TrEMBL record:
Site (Interaction with SHC1): 230
Residues that coordinate or bind ATP: 258-266, 286, 332-338, 396
Listed EC numbers: 2.7.10.1
Record protein name field: Tyrosine-protein kinase receptor
Gene (UniProt): NTRK2
Membrane topology: Single-pass type I membrane protein
Organism whose genome encodes this protein: Nothobranchius furzeri (Turquoise killifish)
UniProt cross-references to SMART domains, sorted A to Z: TyrKc
Family indicated by similarity: Belongs to the protein kinase superfamily. Tyr protein kinase family. Insulin receptor subfamily.
GO annotation terms (biological process): cell differentiation; cellular response to brain-derived neurotrophic factor stimulus; nervous system development; positive regulation of neuron projection development; positive regulation of phosphatidylinositol 3-kinase/protein kinase B signal transduction; trans-synaptic signaling by neuropeptide, modulating synaptic transmission
Active site per the UniProt annotation: 392
Keywords: ATP-binding, Developmental protein, Differentiation, Disulfide bond, Glycoprotein, Kinase, Leucine-rich repeat, Magnesium, Membrane, Metal-binding, Neurogenesis, Nucleotide-binding, Phosphoprotein, Receptor, Repeat, Signal, Transferase, Transmembrane, Transmembrane helix, Tyrosine-protein kinase
Gene Ontology molecular functions: ATP binding; brain-derived neurotrophic factor binding; brain-derived neurotrophic factor receptor activity; metal ion binding
Marked site positions, Interaction with PLCG1: 533
Taxonomy of the source species: Eukaryota, Metazoa, Chordata, Craniata, Vertebrata
Length: 538
């Protein structure tokens, strides 16, 4: 019997929704699912005037399915993208890309009209914007340098000579000897606040410590490790008598896709007969993409591990369903999804992200940020008490529920959606280098102290409304930067006390870092000092 289902009135917003077809008769039941994939032509929602961040950025938002191909024209000439002028996509969902045409140190020759053309097989859209980066220079006649320029050059030359003499005379044995590399990155946006330097201990690894599998990036060797999330410092989490709860397949009804994670797709579902006093509850269901032998083994180990982690700030794990493919893990559903998206959608760029019709977005207050931070720290105190080293603490791995309840929600390492947050080494190992301390980058050393470093980065993410750490730098530059001892700048909205906490997390020597309990109680008292008005976020 062949039947069909007609759907009308669909819009791009329905993309990713799941259609479940269920058939039942007196001998049994079967069902199949289908994901909606609605194709539509590109629309350029916004193309805004250039903004100055660390570089210049012409922000845009484009929708379309399949993903439109983008071309830029400057003064009607096709723009060839290079390292210093290129399209950067900062946020990408199924239907929508938010990004920038990034220009590094543009001059007057880059002024003029910029046209963005977006095309896919269903159509095209274009928008233009005018850019004025720098005023053209005043051309003066040769030989007519103003007097103060000549005086300036002479002054610089003279100072240089005097400095040179001093260095030659005192440099060799002086306490004030000059180091080979500068500890400060030049930052044209805010030269008054250089990046902080944390003292550089002598930590050079011996070749035997490094092991055979290392790649060299810049001046740094990075060890390559397989599936690092399962090399815990302590085996105590994997108890041999762990009882993993099994849930029947027919008790799980998929509703819609929530996202894509380390194992595979994540769905919102209804789960029947899970908790005693409710017939059904909403749950988040994680499916295992490819059930290879080793994939299955990882799946079971993760399930055992999760069964043993129970805390009010760790997402609740309900159990597994392994009756048939795909293998499924069932978690508590956290209404507002991952913390990184949540921060971005409650920050100054939220207007760009909102689609015009939905939600009036409210910017997070400092006390709400402290409340979020304090909860993650509480979760980390618990993990440390269990001798569990997370290795990948980041806002993308935390979840937000009702009333600004935040929990640590993910213990996997590699992710599709946030792939730019990870650095691929030696083929398939992905490392979240932007969250890692020097000793994890250089010697694959992951400890409770390296988690403290990442917690400092998480604080920075919270107070920047979800910016990517070192977003202005490439992965190689980030590695150079961290291993040389540079740390992230104080975010504009961050109180001094909180930045001091971050600096306490980013001490180069792990034993010098703040203790996780100290961090938690400091955040708790800061949060108490500025009470949270939760009702703002409803
Ligand atoms: P993950 O597998 O944890 O990387 O999940 C991928 C995405 O699915 C996340 O970024 C969230 O948006 C969403 N997600 C995962 N777990 C949950 C959950 N328990 N509740 C709500 N959304 C979730």
């Amino acid at each position: 019997m062949e039947n069909s289902l007609s759907l009308t009135g669909l819009s791009p917003d329905d993309n990713g929704k799941v259609i479940v077809c269920s058939a039942e008769n007196m001998v049994g039941q079967d069902e199949a699912t289908l994901l909606l994939n609605i194709l539509f032509p590109p629309t350029i929602q916004h193309l805004l005037s250039p903004e100055r961040d660390h570089h210049w950025c012409i922000p845009f938002t484009v929708t379309g399915n399949p993903k439109p191909v983008l071309h830029w024209y400057h003064e009607n000439k096709l723009l060839e993208e290079q390292d210093y002028i290129r399209t950067m996509i900062h946020e990408s969902t199924e239907n929508e890309d938010h990004g920038c045409l990034q220009l590094v140190n543009p001059t007057h020759i880059h002024n003029g009209e910029y046209r963005l053309v977006a095309k896919n097989e269903f159509g095209r859209d274009e928008k233009t914007v005018l850019a004025q980066f720098i005023d053209p220079p005043n051309i003066s006649h040769p030989g007519s340098f103003p007097v103060y320029v000549v005086v300036g050059i002479a002054g610089v030359a003279l100072t240089g000579c005097v400095l040179m003499v001093i260095i030659l005379k005192y440099g060799r044995n002086s306490k004030f000897g000059i180091k080979g590399s500068s500890s400060v990155i030049s930052n044209d946006d805010d030269s008054a606040s250089p990046l902080h330097h944390v003292s550089n201990g002598n930590n050079t690894p011996s070749s035997s410590e490094m092991g055979p599998d290392a790649v060299i990036i810049g001046m740094t060797k990075i060890p390559v490790i397989e599936n690092p999330q399962y090399f815990r410092n302590s085996g105590s989490m994997l108890k041999s008598d762990t009882f993993v709860h099994h849930i029947k397949r027919h008790n799980i009804v998929l509703k819609r896709e929530l996202g894509e994670g380390a194992f595979g797709k994540v769905f919102l579902a209804e789960c029947y007969n899970l908790v005693p006093d409710q017939e059904k509850i909403h749950v988040a269901v994680k499916t295992l993409k490819e059930a290879t032998e080793s994939g299955r083994a990882d799946f079971y180990r993760e399930a055992e591990l999760l069964t043993n982690l129970q805390h009010e700030h760790i997402v609740t794990f309900y159990g597994v369903c392994v009756e048939s493919d795909p293998l499924i893990m069932v978690f508590e559903y956290m209404k507002h999804g991952d913390l990184n998206k949540f921060l971005r959608s409650h920050g100054p760029d939220a207007v760009l992200m909102a689609d015009g019709q939905h939600s009036i977005l409210v910017e997070l207050t400092q006390s709400q940020m402290l409340h979020i931070a304090q909860q993650i720290a509480a979760g980390m105190v618990y993990l440390a008490s269990q001798h569990f080293v997370h290795r990948d603490l980041a806002t993308r791995n935390c979840l937000v529920g009702e009333n600004l309840l935040v929990k640590i929600g993910d213990f996997g390492m590699s992710r599709d959606v946030y792939s730019t947050d990870y650095y691929r080494v030696g083929g398939h190992t992905m490392l979240p280098i932007r969250w890692m301390p020097p000793e994890s980058i250089m010697y694959r050393r992951f400890t409770t102290e390296s988690d403290v470093w990442s917690l400092g980065v998480v604080l920075w993410e919270i107070f920047t409304y979800g910016k990517q750490p070192w977003y202005q730098l490439s992965n190689n530059e980030v590695i150079e930067c961290i291993t040389q001892g540079r740390v992230l700048q104080r975010p504009r909205t961050c109180p001094k006390e909180v930045y001091d906490l971050m600096l306490g997390c980013w001490q180069r020597e792990p034993y010098m870092r703040l203790n996780i309990k100290e961090i938690h109680s400091m955040l708790q008292s800061l949060a108490k000092a500025s009470p949270v008005y939760l009702d703002i976020l409803g």
